[in-house]
Amino acid sequence: MGHAHSHDIKLHRKYGDTVRIGPNAVSIGSATATKAVYGIGAGLRKSDLYPVQYSYSNGKLIPGIFTTTDERLNKDMKRPVSNLYSLSNVLHHEGLVDHTIELFISELKRKFADTDSACNIDDWLHFFAFDVMSEVTFARRIGFIERGTDVDGTIAGIWKRFRYFGIVGQMPWLDKLWDKSPLINALLPAKSSAIVTFTFMQIKKRIEDFKNTTEGPIEKNSGQPIDFFSQFLKAKFNHPEIPDWYLTSWTTSNMLAGSDSTAVYLRSIIYYLLKNPKSYRKVLEELSDHENTGKISKVITWAEAKSLNYLDACIKEAGRLHPVVGQQFERVAPIGGITVNGHFIPEGTVVGINPWVSHRDKTVFGDDAEAWNPDRWLVEKSEQHRMESSMLVYFSSKGFGILAVDLLGYGDTDKPLSASEYKTKKIATEIIEILNLENIRKVHGVAHDFGSLLLSRIANYYPDRLYTTTFLAVPYSLPGQKFDLAKVNALTKQVAGFERNRIKNYDYDDEITAELDPTLSLPTLVIQGSEDKIAVSQLLDFVRSYIPHLRSRPVPTGHWVHLEAKDTVNQYLEEFFSECQASI
């Protein structure tokens, strides 16, 4: 037990990308197969490994969002709380995290630095992880840091449970005969672990407090600490139809899964930095430089940490080499089977990817995939990543939740061979399906270049899913409008002094048949570059009359407006969102 990750690595080194590891089980080693096995619409259900991890309380099984094999139940459980794990919401808990960090630093200084004593940082990182998850869940710590010990054997108890899951999960029928057996539990009632007992006590107390108040759930502007349980309780308050055990499941999952995974990740980062003195020194130098220039506080905030590029690279590299989970997330091949990386896998076959294997895929991470190399994360950034560093990071720091999707055929998206798959209505519908899966009702749509065509169609077919539309460089495109190459060439020659040489003939038949209303009634912002020779600013004149709520903002740039004038574009967007939000 505890070596599944290393065994899987050895098997894939010897036998290649696809390895049969059991009578009805296949392990995939390629990182590029992740979408085929776990992606949206892949259609592979979870295996019987997951119910082994159900909690058992008062004679009843309590599934979780992660552990349930019922897709409908998974969506029902996730829908009321999925937005709570967005970056914008998690940042509301930053004060609680900072409070625990301050105590952690203070205790390490008092007990070890001031006394010149050795510190078992492995244990102390675990203590911190459990206390910080307790703090953000209940606004109250368990007390690991203050006491400097494994409170009530909590960590030992969880490790015992994980050992059980790892072994019995490979033979799930044993779980039904032992841990989940009503007879066994009646004769030998299982004693709840300390952390589960603490969690249940906190739930009971908070529910009683809630029943004794008429003020309703705590709001973000109330001045009181906002913890996850307050928000779980509000979700239950807003959805009285959902069963009470959802509240228990959400909370225990937050405590159990969040604490141990955080501890593993923190240990990995420290381990690899200590093992690689050169990286350790570079991190210290970066921190020192930022401290001397006033860029970071004593307790570094999330907003400040974004500028620590080398530390960020080290964190990513530690997570790559030492993933939190060391075994496969099992799925079951659907009816008719599936083909993954050229190998046909029959229906009913258990298939999965161990991240310890896929994170060492040389086709993705290079020939040095086995080695520590934070610099691999500091390579020249693509246009997409440069956009993320300017626009996406900026707005996430402002509290916006962000969903960034590539057009079909780009990046890591599917690349179907049939041209019919690229019809604008079909792609627009797929974007809406992603919003549904993420439990997002409405968004501010922002697009650039070819993305502007897709945003135009989303606005035509699904206007109720958008608050606003923003078009960068390329303005709104009328539905069913044929591309007039001669007209565009004439306009380009008039403005730029030359004609564009290209072939472009999209299939707009689905739009013409649908007879879409060409009027874009949503509040719309168009930001164009005055020096753009690709999408000349006069293109907006063709559609201006169809956009009654139009705001146009020129910037002195070429085609890549969001990169060439990122601060100005971000300012225009923020002002636009704020003004429109006030009227929503």
Descriptive overview:
This protein is α/β, with parallel strands linked by helices and 584 residues long. The protein folds into 3 domains: 1-47 and 310-379, no CATH class; 51-271, Cytochrome P450 (Cytochrome p450, Orthogonal Bundle), CATH 1.10.630; 383-582, Alpha/Beta hydrolase fold, catalytic domain (Rossmann fold, 3-Layer(aba) Sandwich). 48% of the residues lie in helices and 9% in strands. The chain is built from 25 helices and 13 strands. It has helices spanning 4-15, 34-38, 71-78, 87-90, 94-113, 121-138, 144-147, 154-168, 173-177, 182-187, 194-211, 228-238, 245-275, 277-292, 302-305, 309-321, 355-358, 362-365, 383-397, 424-437, 450-461, 485-496, 509-514, 561-564, 566-582, and strands at 18-22, 25-28, 45-46, 55-57, 60-62, 331-332, 338-340, 343-345, 350-353, 443-448, 466-472, 524-529, 550-555. It has a 5-stranded mixed β-sheet. A 4-stranded parallel β-sheet has the order 10-11-12-13, sandwiched between helices. Strand 1 and strand 2 form a beta hairpin. Helix 5 runs antiparallel to helix 6 (121-138) and helix 6 runs antiparallel to helix 13 (245-275). The termini are far apart. The model is unreliable at 502-506 (pLDDT under 50).
